[in-house]
Specification:
The two termini are about 25 Å apart. The chain is globular, with a radius of gyration of 15 Å. The chain is of the alpha+beta class and about 130 residues long. About 20% of the residues lie in helices and about 35% in strands. The strands form two sheets. Strands 1, 2, 3, 4 and 5 form a five-stranded mixed β-sheet that branches. The chain has two helices and nine strands; from the N terminus they run βαβββββαβββ. It folds into two domains: about 60 residues, 2,3-Dihydroxybiphenyl 1,2-Dioxygenase, domain 1 (Roll); about 55 residues, Roll (2,3-Dihydroxybiphenyl 1,2-Dioxygenase, domain 1), CATH 3.10.180.10.
């Protein structure tokens, strides 16, 4: 059996991003790993369904174009278990000052979802 183990994301503010996923998406964090030779610092965030996100920061990372139509990974999506939960989490994020970029709405392919700009502008879809 094969399964996706984790996705990794470079960030500027490791602690802020870690707190965001723990607060809004019920992530559990491991202890920080730090490689003093490279300056790399990472956390693995584990989610209730078994999915994991590795957030990483290092002093030599570079900024890049954040155009949503660029090639590469564009968003991360979380299924929260129902329309009411999509609505509730979306409103909570909006109230806490996060920019909702779309929805909640039913998409052309039948998903009920919203999309929020998380810390550092990363797009996060919230689906039922």
């Amino acid at each position: 059996m094969m399964k996706l183990d984790h996705v990794a994301l470079y960030v500027k503010d490791l602690e802020n991003v870690r707190t965001f996923f723990m607060r809004y998406f019920n992530a559990v964090s491991n202890e920080m790993y730090h490689n003093p030779k490279t300056g790399l610092k990472t956390y693995f965030l584990s989610f209730p369904d078994g999915g994991r996100l590795e957030i990483m920061s290092r002093p030599d990372r570079v900024e890049d174009d954040r155009n949503a139509l660029r090639t590469g990974f564009i968003h991360i999506s979380f299924s929260v278990g129902g329309r009411e939960r999509v609505d509730c989490l979306t409103e909570c994020l909006r109230s806490d000052g996060f920019r909702i970029t779309d929805g909640p709405r039913t998409t052309g392919d039948g998903y009920y979802e919203s999309c929020v700009e998380g810390p550092e502008g990363n797009l996060i879809e919230i689906t039922e």
